[in-house]
Write a structure and sequence with these properties.
The protein has a 16-stranded antiparallel beta barrel with strand order 8-10-11-14-15-16-17-18-19-20-21-22-23-26-27-30. Strands 4-3-31 form a three-stranded antiparallel beta sheet, with no helix packed on it. With 492 residues, the chain is mostly beta strands. Strand 5 and strand 6 form a beta hairpin. The protein has one domain: Porin (Beta Barrel). It is built from five helices and 31 strands.
Amino acid sequence: MKPLAYLLLAAGLAATPALAQHQNHQMPGMVAPADTTRRATHQGHQMPGMHMPADSSHAGHHMAGMDMGDMNMSHAYSRNLPMNRNGSGTAWQPDQTPMYMWMQHQGPWMLMYHGSAFGRYTSQNFNHRDARGHHSAVDGPNWAMVMAQRNVGQRGLLNLSLMMSLDPLTETRGGYPLLFQTGESYKGQPLIDKQHPHDLFSGLSVAYTYAFSKDIDLTAYLGYPGEPTIGPTAFMHRISAMPNPDAPLSHHWTDATHITYGVASLGLRYKQFKLEGSNFTGREPDQYRYDFDRPRADSWAARLNWNPTSELALQVSRAFIKSPEDLHPDENVRRTTASVLHSRTWGDHQFIASSLVWGLNQGHGAHAEHAVLAETNLTLGRPTFYGRYEWVQKSSEELSYYVPGPADEPLEMLFNVHTLTLGSSYRLANLGGPRGPELSVGGQLTGYVIPATLQNDQRGRGFGQQLGYGKLPLSASVYVRLNAPWMQMRRM
């Protein structure tokens, strides 16, 4: 059975109508190289861009049970970088990022298949049954992706990618419940305390890279939809976020542009630095998740990436986003982000991956709004332990939570929302053998520290009675997860 079809079929076993969401999880990948200056050989054939770990225990010639021959194992957008650096769009991850995927060789093409699917039960604000945001649901965040690349001549590299999600089937009525989440709309109303589903076609891109030398290459990238050069690797592809089925509350401060209908980017790499720029569509996807939105090419972004070591990936970015929200067409956003991603791998299914991300939105309302995310994934064989902390500034308009001022007129306010998620999962088996999708079970608990104003019910002229969230709201989820198998190198 073809790997992608295998994942889609197996995902149906994961309870609910689940399959591969945006789900907060990744496209992670393979035992990460500690030394990115080496190249591997197989029976005398050099494999360009395949950098082997310094640990000789991983210096074998067999990967995920497949004979790689002289297959090109380079990064998607450089023949001279390791595959492990692949993120979402053209973003970088650390070179020691592990990878979960299937691979196969078809003539000159290398094909890679990724995916993640959850079947879960989630209960939001379960300790306040009569409060705002109290909601329970069975759902299935999911996504699946295929990439194809091949060398072109002595210096060129062509990459094609397709990402799809069945969220429109598994996340109905505008999305899944997620306390304090905001962004996008459904049936003319803003989504509040809910994470929007992702489009059926979440990514469709083509890119060509030309290597001037080992240290310098230039990449042209086109996506419809695609991902402009804003922020770090999107959450569903970050290994640090892989076990967590929820999108970050800071999603629309950092990586929400990962599905953009119309992107053109250029990126120039010099050694471990890359400077990129994008022209793209500012408007976020609409509520119709099966179609292709109109491209506008009205927004701009620039990003500087730097991987100082094999364990670190740093970036800063700045963007002007024209009219991102369809309910506020006259509002433009200036977005600034900075991030540090860290990964360290020391054995099969043994790694730690962490992310620290900051985002700033200016122009959406009267206030500049900050968000900070810190998350960690510690995997020790079968068990995984993970956590996520966020501080997000949400406005009264975003939450549609208005506090009466003089003459009962609503006050414009910023609310500081702090949230902490702690969870764990356990890998049960690979369905259908070692190359089959991994099946895991897990659960998590999230607590929210919010201002007293948000805890209490409010009443005011023109906006009626508003329920508060209560003191220290709590949310919890239990789930089963399917994802592509760990990719490793074994000795023959």
